[in-house]
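Data deposition worksheet. Section B asks for the primary sequence of the deposited chain exactly as it was used as input, without tags or linkers unless they were present during the calculation. Section C holds the resulting structure in token form. Section D is free text for depositor observations; keep each observation to a single sentence. Incomplete worksheets are returned to the depositor.
Section A, Depositor: J.P.
Section B:
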Amino acid sequence: MAERTDTSKHPLTWDRLPLAAGADAHDRGDGWVIRSGGGRGLLHGLERVALAFEDIINRLTGHLWANPFYHTDPLAFFLLIVVAATGVYLLIFYQFGYLASYESIVRMNRFPVSWVMRGVHRYASGALLLVTLFHALRILFQDRFRGARRMSWLWGVILTLSLWLVGVSGYLLLWDARAQLILRSFVGLFGPTDALPSFLTDAALDQSWLTMLLLLGVHLGVSGLAGLLFWYHIRRVQRPKLLPARFWMIGIVALFLALTPLLMGLFLPEGVVSQPPSHTGPPRTGLLQVGMLPRAGVAQSFDAMPLDLFFLFFLPLLAGGSVWGAWPGLIVLAALTAVLVALPWLFRGKGPVPIVVNGERCTGCGLCVADCPYGALAMQPRTDGSDRPIVVVDEGRCVACGVCIGACPTLALSLGERPVELLWQEVTTRLALAHAEERPTRLVFTCGRHAAHGARPYLRTSDEPPPTVDGVQIEVIPLACAAMVHPDLLGRALEAGAAEVQVVGCPPNDCPDREGNLWLEERLRRERPPKLRRRFARSPIFATWLPPDRFEQALYRPAAPPPAAPPPAEEENKNAAWQRLLPPLTARHMAGGLALMALLIVVAFLLASIPYTPTVAVQGDGSGVGLLPTPSATVDLGAVDMVPMTLCNNSGLGFAVHAVGGGEAAPRRCEHRHLTSSSPTLLGRPTVLTVTIAGGENLGYTWNFGDGSAPLTGHSLVVTHTYPAVGTYTVILTIGNVPPPLTATTTVTVVSSMD
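Section C:
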């Protein structure tokens, strides 16, 4: 074994290592997979379940490259671009103000293009959050969230929270009944209330443009924060892959454009169409208004709404009706968030040992710096007067993947204090024992993920008989990453007596160390230094890239050198480079992958459209916590005149109501609201009559419209009525089930023209 005092004049290389065995024959196992403990068994168990699910996906698509779960990171970024692009388009037509904002959405829905853009914007946001969650689960199961990666995990959690806040603020910009429910739920955190602050109601209609402008500022500000967090999330890696393959991008856009209108038309309830001024008769509904809810502050109650479980999952928690109010739900959400943030510190154990540099052997070639996936290595001048630079390690970035060891030609890098010469000794020892048994031997190098799953039955840690495949003895040596093996080591293994040498690693885009499989494949193809030596170009040295639970399948593949293939024409075309690790991708494989993506879009749509009926949480004193009461009608808000009223008794106090559990609520001073649209009403057009009450549940209303028509009785706070002739009418509203009955009146004027 060479001394550690080698100089750059006679550097130690794999060719200079002796063939003599030196390792203990019993020293076999996962000694080069240095991560252990700290809940790793639990994580491996969870990953085993995930691998079984991914195996189903792989079988359905027929090709590993067509599995969308291998592309969650670039898919998430592309969906973020789709959401941003559609958002900019919608912003062009958005206006500010409680009335103007809502009516601008209604006007957008009149045109198919903007209607589809709204749908794509909304449901691509849900798909973005879903893909992000899948990406986070894969990071968790693969144990890529602690050690030097913990800050990336932390920024990823904060990024996910910011995406959620962007979605919630986007719902507020609609200023419909859903936005009202969101606001009143949060207001309920600070005490019992059955109404919003006055500046969030039509009482502040003149200044509402400023409120909506501030909400838009929050929406755009948090979106910008999400972009900044994304940069922080990926800045610790080299050559981040931002976009998926072209067929993914084209297919996803086509799927959203095709599926969004179809799904909205099939599953969402019809909303209200804003009528042109020439229209007469009752409001109409239509396909382009599906899912539209009444404007906030006009329809005070409703039967149900679509609940978006991605962004509005907190509504049932905050509105659960607990005697403690909404705080238990908020505490649960905060606790879950804290656990996610603290995961890297909760899973303690033996972490990765950073790479150690032998300065006497380092020649300053820079191959290790070029191949490091995380930018943990850098070249700097020596302090001993030598003109050759030396590599230095940033321990805060190093994850001990070993990719740099596979790039170093002079054995100058090691995992901790364990020099790579020991790896060569293990190789020669195993081959010597196999030669003594007179059996042909295939030496298999594999990564830590394979060693934890499919390769585990083939790992020998004692003198048990070695496994065989087709009469060939199998010797498996697990490494931190498959790219940790140097091409010269593979050639020397053949010279030491191996009949075949195989490397088994993860599929493209599924390597925990990002580029390990790609770099090794290119080294074996003689496309990237350090290259496999020419004398071994046609030798039985080959690599197989399969999921960790398919290790045994790799052993039964025919032993053949990698086929010759031209390198990618452009360096940045990494998608093309990765695809060369696998069989050709056909149209059938692409169709299978896009079909799964279509299923994901459908799931995202359905999870964003769960029927939900808000409930009223009542405290012991009978006061509500700010949720919407009983059902009311859905009316056209863009084509009718609205005459609000406030119910008052003779003392000027808001009427008292009886709580569900008994007891009378304290009267409240009336808040007279401004008219949202002034009378007179044009003949033939419906008039909307809206009553604003202080509280109550299951109240009965009798509406006498003053034109001789039959009174209307029901529970609705909003009604419409079309008068038959020009004139002035007195409307009388009676609260029938509140003893003593309360009444309110208002005047409606109907004219033949607005001149």
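Section D:
The longest helix spans residues 112-141.
Residues 431 and 497 are 6 Å apart (CA to CA).
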